[in-house]
Structures are given as C-alpha cells and as structure tokens.
Amino acid sequence: MHYCPGCEHGLLTRLVAATLDAMELRTRAVMVDSVGCSVLAYRYLNIDHIQAPHGRAPAVMTGLKRYRPDLLVFTVQGDGDALAIGLSELLQTANRGEAVTVFVVNNATYGMTGGQMAPTTLLGQVTTTTPKGRDVRETGRPLDGAKLLAVIEGAAYVRRASLVPRPRVGKDAPSFRREDLEDARRAVENAFKVQLRGGFAYVEFLSTCWVNWRMSIQEAKRFASTEMVRQFPLGVYRDVFGVEQM
To answer: What is the rounded CA–CA span in Å between residue 20 and residue 28?
Structure first.
C-alpha cells in the first residue's frame, strides 16, 4: 500500500469501503479528495472522486451535493487540512447544515508535508516547527474540532472515535481490542445514515504518525491511546437524529 506501515489511514479506508458495500451505497458515493495522506484513498476505493484544493473539500462537497442531492458525498481530511487551512469552510458548511459527511484523521501533525505543528498538536509535543515542544504562550492550545462543531446548530452528528486499538491486558502475546475498530466502523455507518437523512455529519478519528513523531510504531500507538485520548476524549458530542440509538 501507499500508506506508511502502521498508519491508520489504511484502516479508515477499509472501514469506509466495507460500510459503503454493506449499505449498498458504492454506486452513489463520491469522495472529495483533500490534500494530504488521505488523498491516497483514491487508489483503493472504487468510487468516483473529485480533487479539492487544500482545505476546500467542504466547499467542493457543498456544490456537488446541491447539484446532485441523490449522491452520497464525503471527504477524509487531515487535522491541519480541516482545522487550520480549511476551518472556515468546515464551520460554514456545518452552520448551513449541508447534507455531507466529513471524516477527519487527527494525528496531531501535518503528516505529508513534513511533520509541522498542526492545530491539534499536544502541548509539549515536538514537531519540525516546534523543536522544543509546543508552547502555549507562543502557539496556543490544541484545537478540539469536535467540541467546536458540537455547538453549531446546523451540525446533526458530531462524534470522535479512535483508529488506534488499545492493547489487551494479559499474559499472552500482545493483542488489541477489536471493539475499538468496531466502534469506529459504527461511527462511519452512522455518519452516512445522517447524510441520508439530510444532515451534516462530522467524525474525527484519533490516529498516529510514528514517522513524524519519531517513535516506533508501538510507542506511537501507546501515545495515541493515552496522551491523545486525554486531550481529545472519545464519544458522541451531538446526535440530532438519534442514530446512535438505532
């Protein structure tokens, strides 16, 4: 694959593909490709794709969905793409209640462009632009996209899940909790259900970037399962249609 070994972008691509098939939506689906590691999904998802400029996927989706409301329109963005470069487009699309779906992969860095600090970079975290660690006095605090969108009335579904399975505790060989990925799959499914009901859906997935974090794959997964979860709690932040109870 074109993703780095151990990268959760591949897991999300697989979950999206499986959900589209299970819901029989593949022939109606269009992915608006953003700029970043997520763009590589076009090599693996056998659906229609449109390339958007950096950060502008929500605006492109708006135009497409208004012209063809019968389509299932979604994007996968990175945290920097969605919450820095494209934050205005994201907020305005949610505020208008556009019937589109936004998946955001939060790995706390700009993964494809060199490991720079992103809006979600944790305090003290080392990046190529914060070599001594992120300092709140210079760059502020990590931006929580789910909390930000949860107060917008036009947003119908706001959720945070994790693509990083937590290790099971035991004496056997290392294994990981399948339940975490099942939870992420349900989040994908529910986000599509919300769009089919005419609502805006945002799901953020915690992920790793061991290459830019300068960690081993296992160290990165432990970091995401502990430090990132503390900063970005998992759960449902807004569910207007009650899809979580269906």
So the answer is: 9
